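## retry 2 of 3
previous attempt timed out at serialization; input unchanged, resubmitting
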Amino acid sequence: MVRFETSHGAFTIELYPEEAPLSVKNFLQYVDSGFFDGTIFHRIVPGFVIQGGGLTADFSPKKTEAPIRNEADNGLRNERGTLSMARTDAPHSATSQFFVNLADNEFLDYRPGRHGYAVFGRVIDGIDVIDRIATVPTGRRKGYTDAPTEDVLIRSARQTEAAK
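## retry succeeded, writing output
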């Protein structure tokens, strides 16, 4: 499990290493190195997703490790409260960025002929914090659309044995 402390409260996620081993290993490398500390949720789309894990508060991208293989064909669904790897249009381009689904987003799931987005965890505590983040006003900021007009800071992300 990983506990996130944010400027809007804390939430805990459980990870699915059996279903998404590459995604979980990749994510935990970023967690354990402190990479997420001081990053922001830079994209908020109410009723869809909140996305973060790659930009600092001034919207500068952090240097990431190499992209990983897309594991969206793991049987997990992009349901409300799940975490998925963000990527570009290239299916195997995920690095550090992730998103939390605010709704059931079936159209993001893997299907034959469509790569989808790899689910690798779920919020198990603090979904109210996720919902609170989703209400932050957004606009265009530093070249990004759907960007919060106030910083939504990830203060820390740490592995934990149990939800606190």
